[in-house]
Amino acid sequence: MRYTSVLSNLLWPLATTTTEYGADCSWPIFSTNFSCDDRLGDRAAEYYDFIHKCHEYGGPKGKKACDQTEMDRLEMNARQPKAMVNYTGTGFTKIKAPQTVMDLIIQHWEANKETMTEESWPKGSIYLNYWESKTYMVAVEDRNLKGAGDKLKEQIWDAAKTTIEAWTNVEIQPTSMYGIRVYTEGAILSPHVDRLPLVSSCIINVAQDVDEPWPLEVYDRQGNAVNVTMEPGDMVLYESGSTLHGRPFPLKGRYYANIFIHFEPLTRPAGDHSALDELLPPYLIPGTAAAQNWLIENPDGWNKPSPAFPAQPSDQPEGHYAAAIGDYYRLKELAQEDPESLHRKDSNGWLPIHEAARSGHTDIVELLIQHGAEKDARTGLSDNGSSLLNMALEFHGEDHPLTAFLFSIGAQDIGYGEL
Ligand SMILES: *[C@@H]1O[C@H](CO)[C@@H](O)[C@H](O)[C@H]1NC(C)=O
Ligand SMILES: *[C@@H]1O[C@H](CO)[C@@H](O)[C@H](O)[C@H]1NC(C)=O
Ligand SMILES: *[C@@H]1O[C@H](CO)[C@@H](O)[C@H](O)[C@H]1NC(C)=O
Ligand SMILES: *[C@@H]1O[C@H](CO)[C@@H](O)[C@H](O)[C@H]1NC(C)=O
Asked: Among 85, 94, 344, 350, whose CB has the most other CB atoms within 10 angstroms?
């Protein structure tokens, strides 16, 4: 039977610990009411220090932004798992990554690890403590890196798919791949569930240099915290939309490099023949709050899309969204229907052209300039943020086509806050 080889890889000896604890003990999961004795030390103090630093780093608007995202995290933790169909008994397990997957990833890592780029985080983001512990990327899709690009991604997806299908026992399709992300000393990752359609997922540890294992904390079906530790070449399989996961204990060591590979199931669990809701993806339970919310965000319903763009955030104007995902034709339409919308800043002081620059869509930047955007347009509600060329250099480097295009039209490299 085709699953034997996967299961014989199983390393995870579902450990029993003497220090069992549930939610809101090591870190707020559902609420900031710490519900534990002091067996883990003063976790509340660590948490409030984290939140305080988020406020400080975010500047004048930081407090509100951090508090809002933090509240969203807690709400999503409470709401989403309940709405998810589960495909496995435990929600997570650990195996050795298949050799085919490891070979592709290690080759990419070894060829490019010296040119990692710093990951940028929007102010107010509370998933990582980027304000004191930077994260870096050796991105599999970064075409500036040796051997990287869409082809490498496809290969990794293909190689990982069989393993995750064997675990979930249903057909799945790729939805997202992220990494290789490099965490550094002191990193904390707030426990969360992944946004949909990141449902059937794995984490692979690529490399690490640590003084002690850096636990991934997951919550089991009984609601208890379980520490999962990884060595390079280990693969944690987890139902990331329903299994709460994070790293609330700071990384002790130099670095920890992971890649995240995500899929979504195309059917209900094997053996579950209950009727599907016509509009909902098969992994959402009709009638739940998260399912209702999904329908509002996806009025056209789920139709087994090919690897999709991220859904448009409800607070993002359409022109910004189209520019961010590279939807050239939609922007051309908008240029007719609502030309002003291409030149209107969002509440963060960004124009659509800044989204296009961040995403590296040269064609869209050209299009917007043809429609009157300024070649040195700056972010910021007072136009004193980064210029387009500054963003292109920062996000994509000197060799990127966007950078070349902006140089060719005489754009200026003006940084944040420069006059
Ligand atoms: C947290 O504690 C406050 C005060 O004791 C209480 O009113 C509130 O209901 C608690 N919240 C949760 C989610 O337990
Ligand atoms: C799926 O798992 C999550 C997390 O363990 C749980 O909250 C949820 O109720 C489960 N779904 C069902 C249908 O049992
Ligand atoms: C997880 O690891 C942390 C840090 O080493 C430790 O304090 C905690 O007790 C562990 N939790 C469990 C459930 O084993
Ligand atoms: C941009 O200008 C605004 C308003 O004058 C000011 O509050 C803000 O600090 C400036 N930002 C930078 C980065 O200089």
From this structure: 350
